[in-house]
Every structure is written in C-alpha cells, then in structure tokens.
C-alpha cells in the first residue's frame, strides 16, 4: 500500500523500500517502453520512469507529483527525466502524451466526485490521438482494508542502517466507498513516530466506467491481475486501459 502524501524527506527516502519493484511495475514498464511520450501522474520517487530511461527509452518521460520531497528523490536518481511539481489541477497539457499512467493505486486518492472529474478531464486533454490512460484501483469486493491493522507491522531499513516500523489502522467502517486510515512510522533513531492520515476511495467497474464516460473516455480493456486475467469478485485489482471516446 502506498501513501502518496509523503512530504517529509525522511519518509520519502523510505518510499522505495516500502514499495519494492513488483509485477505491477513490470506491467507498466512494458507499456512505457512501447510509448513515445509518457506522463506518470503521482510518480512518487520516479522508479518507473527511471527504469524506462535506464533501459534506453528514446522519447519524452514526464513525472508529476505534488510532494516536493518525493521529487527530490526522483531528481537525484534520474536527473535526465522531466520532473514536475504539482497535480492535474495546476499543470495542464494538451494532446502531448501517447500514454498517461497512474500507478501505485494513486487513482484512489481522488476521493470526491469533483476531484475525479477534474483529473479525468485533464487526462483526456493530455492524451494524443490514439493515446491510452492506464491505472489501477483496488477491487472493493476484495475488502483489502480489512487487513490494514496494527497487528501487521512491516520493518524496513532506513538510510542510516536503523529499522523503521510501519503499521496501519482503519478508522471505523467505509462510508460511500471511502476508507480513512492512519499510517504510523516509528524509527529506532527518531525522537517520535510520524503519523499520516489518508482517505482512499474504492470504486467498482460500473462506477469507474461512468466517471470515465462523463470525461469523454472509454474503457478499452480491464484486468483483475497483473497477468491480464479477467476482473473477478475476489480479485485484488481493477486495472483499466482507457482511451478518448470517438
């Protein structure tokens, strides 16, 4: 699970350890390599675009994130990539990208209807003719939030070699498909824990299609896992490939 609100440099430095490369990243990297121009919305520390650049991607790679601390990490590791501070409300593009992606469940931080509509309209505007918008959300039917408990503690190494412990705690029950939880970080060398509060929105396939259609986008493909299997009631993911409606 990824919290895209990392504003603390010490937390941003932990991001890659908390979100190691996995099958989802391989899925997106294949798409990025086949596109001449790519916009990564909510790019975090830029792992995806950094890998694409290192593999010899010859085109335009642009990462967008509202957290300056995350982009410090991104610029340090891949200075040749274009890194932009902001979000789709503050920075707009017109027909410039063959591919727009939102990875790491970043789409779920769009919790209000208006945020969703604004984001999707901006994505449609950014897409070139024939371009694709690809993102994933957690399948609400799988109820992933039920496993986000203080009993499940992760330990990750900090830059100084000490250990940081991370756990989550959900507040109450979901309301309108929205789940609010705290994410606590406790480090051996820190004077106090860091605590962030996040709300995520869980949308099913019907709701996703409705918001996309309203913004002038249509679903081309949808998968339930990173091997491109079908969406199922118990499947963890809803991976959506969309394009501009004709």
Search tags:
25% helix; seven-stranded mixed β-sheet; four-stranded antiparallel β-sheet; Rossmann fold; 246 residues; alpha/beta; disordered N terminus; 7 helices
Task: Tell me what you see in this structure.
The protein has 246 residues and is of the alpha/beta class. The protein has two domains: 9-139 and 203-244, Rossmann fold (3-Layer(aba) Sandwich); 142-200. It is 25% helix and 32% strand. It has seven helices and eleven strands. The strands form two sheets. A seven-stranded mixed β-sheet has the order 3-2-1-4-5-11-10, with helices on both faces. A hairpin with a 6-residue loop joins strand 8 (178-187) and strand 9. Helix 3 crosses helix 4 (47-54). The chain is globular. Residues 1-6 have low confidence and may be disordered.
Number of domains: 2
Describe the strand arrangement of the main beta sheet, using strand numbers.
3-2-1-4-5-11-10
Give the CATH class of the largest domain.
Alpha Beta
The average pLDDT is 93
Rg value: 18 Å
* Succession of helices and strands: HHHEHEHEEHEEEEEHEE
Assign the CATH superfamily of the largest domain.
Answer: Vaccinia Virus protein VP39
Summarize the structure.
The protein has 246 residues and is α/β, with parallel strands linked by helices.
